[in-house]
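#data-curation
PF: Archiving a pair of folding outputs for the training set. Convention for this channel: one message per protein, sequence first, structure tokens after, nothing in between. First:
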Amino acid sequence: MFLYLVTKNHSFSDGNKRIAAFLFLWFLSNNELLYRKSGDKLLENNTLVALTLMIAQSKSEEKDTMVKVVVNLINKNN
């Protein structure tokens, strides 16, 4: 939800997708989810870019689906 809302709400005058991606990584890091137990990154850079762009281009009625994609990705990779 965090990544979705910062990306879609256009809280900033510029750089919303970049700021959303950074804040999402910060959130994952603070909650000890940024790295798998093996030490590998949870999300590769290209995956984070794809997720952020997918959310930015999604329709508002697809919000629940976009949030589920992110949650499932985190749960699957952790």
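PF: Second:
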Amino acid sequence: MESGPLTQTLQTDAELARAVALEAGDLLRTLCATGDCSGATLGKRGDERANAAIIAHLRTARPDDFILSEEAADDRARCSARRVWVVDPLDGTREFSEERDDWAVHIGLAIDGVPVTGAVALPAAHKVFVTDDTPPEYPPLGTRPRMVVSRSRPPEIALAVAAALDAEMIPMGSAGAKAMAVVEGRADIYLHAGGQYEWDNCAPVAVALAAGLHASRIDGSALVYNCVDPLLPDLLICREELADRVLAAIRDAGQSPGG
């Protein structure tokens, strides 16, 4: 993917995020289709190529902005910048290397620490979710809330909250895929604790907030981006009408942020 007229003619940050996420997704799908690598090699090559393409486009389109990417060296000068793109070129490298469909591309923009713009592409499903989409109209909640959890290692707090709420647990891969399941209405809660970084959730949180969902730390405090240390270990995205119940269940389980 080469930088060029596409990024130079885009008018809004959301349009830019959408276009870059889609093109990175196309690149990654093509890489899968070539069949010249597999497994860990496929994942490594996907990370590298998507990262290079995304950074090239963002630097062309927004040369004065800073970029924080999982796959690039961290320029700490970003800490004094107002506008920082927070990028995960391939969220769910394991799922991608296994040629599953629950991996994602994250293009987020934080302004003064607030996740204001984002695009999350699910390339294998040919879907993209962006902050300038029309907010969805969600149906009434069912009798049992649906909670997406890691397919390999659900955090203990998620298991405790699921038990407290009698929630149906839905195993899924990447953070972006889980968050977008809530945005899309296929799940009601995504709760994580125990280790994420800003690039894992900046774009998903921006999209979730724009869709009218609740998004916070697990103590209910705001998610803040472009911190010196990009570790952001816990996250709650859920239907707004469930937020108080989920946060209460977290408190009852005695879970604190980062625990």
